[in-house]
From TrEMBL:
It holds the Pfam family GST_C. GO terms for cellular component: mitochondrion. Keywords: Transferase. Coiled coil: none annotated. This is Glutathione S-transferase A.
Length: 200
């Protein structure tokens, strides 16, 4: 199945990272892919534009089906392959409601990710669940939320001030799907600036 999949992606791009985590969680490691270099404007190349007229990544193919937009790819994979790998959106109504709520609250968190008040809110959520963002199991809410925390840590966010988030970050970072999809250039070079360091 993975042999019919193809992903155009960029290193360090949160929208690209999210579907990469889902692909690993669903057991589709080994999918075909191409790392795009933004500085060379490869996302505006013919091979991307013929699938995505906006010339953006992630751009994803599953056989003849093309899905663009990060969240759409994540939801497509979960809805199409519900029986594969990790179930990221629960079937139980109450659990599903909580995961969906956290997924869409993440959109708010993204816009105000540097705000202490918002970080305190997510710290409280994680204090309630004692595990993952929406409960005891890793879910799509974590796929959407974790990359922003990882990016914030790279930008200097000190998680020692947020013990629940620190425990969450360490636990999720150790997941095979995260390790396999970790942005390659993050491994090779430190961040060039740390705007969050000492500010939160």
């Amino acid at each position: 199945m993975a042999e019919n999949m193809f992903l155009f992606w960029g290193s360090g791009s949160i929208p690209c990272w999210k579907p990469m985590i889902v692909l690993e969680e669903k057991g589709f490691g080994g999918y075909k892919n191409k790392l795009i270099t933004f500085s060379n404007k490869e996302h505006k190349g013919e091979d991307v534009l013929k699938l995505n007229p906006r010339g953006q990544v992630p751009t994803f193919k599953d056989g003849d089906i093309v899905v663009n937009e990060s969240n759409a790819i994540c939801e497509y994979l979960e809805c199409t392959y519900t029986d594969k790998g990790t179930q990221l959106i629960p079937t139980d109504k109450a659990k599903r409601a909580r995961v969906l709520q956290r997924m869409h609250e993440e959109e708010v968190a993204k816009k105000v990710e540097a705000a202490k008040e918002e970080l305190d809110r997510w710290e409280a959520y994680l204090g309630e669940t004692k595990a993952f963002v929406a409960g005891p199991d890793f879910s799509m809410a974590d796929v959407w939320f974790y990359p922003f925390i990882a990016f914030s840590v790279r930008m200097g966010l000190e998680l020692e001030k947020f013990p629940n988030m620190k425990a969450y970050y360490d636990k999720v970072t150790a997941r095979p799907s995260i390790q396999k999809s970790w942005p390659p250039h993050w491994k090779e070079e430190p961040a060039k600036f740390s705007p969050f360091k000492g500010r939160i």
